Amino acid sequence: MMSGAMQQKQDNVALPVFAAVTLALITILSVWKLKQFKYKLVNEAGVAMFYGLLLGLTVRLIWTDKGEQCPGNTTATNEQENTSDISMVNITPHGHIRNDKRQFSSHPEETFDLQVLFNLFLPPIIFHGAYTLNQKRFIANLGSVLTYAFAGTIISCMCIGACMYGFTKLMPPKEEFLLTHCLLFGAIMSATDPVSVLGLLSDLRVDLDLHMLLFGESVLNDAVAIVLTHAITTYTQMDAGLIFDPTAFLHAFVFFLGVLIGSFLLGLIFTVITALLTKFTRLHENPLLETSVFFLLSWSSYLSAEACGLSGIVAVMFCGLSQARYTVLNLSSEGRARIKQLFEVFNFLGEISIFGYMGYILLKFTCHKFEPVFISGALLSVFLSRAFNIYPLSFLLNLGRTNKIPCKFQHFMIFAGLRGAVAFRLAVKETDTEVTRTIFTTTLLMIGFTIWVLGTAADPMLRRLDIRVGVDPDENQEDHSFEIATERPDTTQGLWHSLDYKYLKPVLTHCGPPLTESLPQCCGVFARVFSSPRVQEDEEEELCEIEAGKNTLDLGKTESQQGSSESDSASEHQEDLLDGDLGLGTAPVHPREASGSSTQL
Amino acid sequence: MMSGAMQQKQDNVALPVFAAVTLALITILSVWKLKQFKYKLVNEAGVAMFYGLLLGLTVRLIWTDKGEQCPGNTTATNEQENTSDISMVNITPHGHIRNDKRQFSSHPEETFDLQVLFNLFLPPIIFHGAYTLNQKRFIANLGSVLTYAFAGTIISCMCIGACMYGFTKLMPPKEEFLLTHCLLFGAIMSATDPVSVLGLLSDLRVDLDLHMLLFGESVLNDAVAIVLTHAITTYTQMDAGLIFDPTAFLHAFVFFLGVLIGSFLLGLIFTVITALLTKFTRLHENPLLETSVFFLLSWSSYLSAEACGLSGIVAVMFCGLSQARYTVLNLSSEGRARIKQLFEVFNFLGEISIFGYMGYILLKFTCHKFEPVFISGALLSVFLSRAFNIYPLSFLLNLGRTNKIPCKFQHFMIFAGLRGAVAFRLAVKETDTEVTRTIFTTTLLMIGFTIWVLGTAADPMLRRLDIRVGVDPDENQEDHSFEIATERPDTTQGLWHSLDYKYLKPVLTHCGPPLTESLPQCCGVFARVFSSPRVQEDEEEELCEIEAGKNTLDLGKTESQQGSSESDSASEHQEDLLDGDLGLGTAPVHPREASGSSTQL
Question: For the purposes of burial, counting CB atoms within 10 Å of the CB of A375, is it exposed (0-12), middle (13-18) or buried (19 or more)?
Answer without folding.
Answer: middle
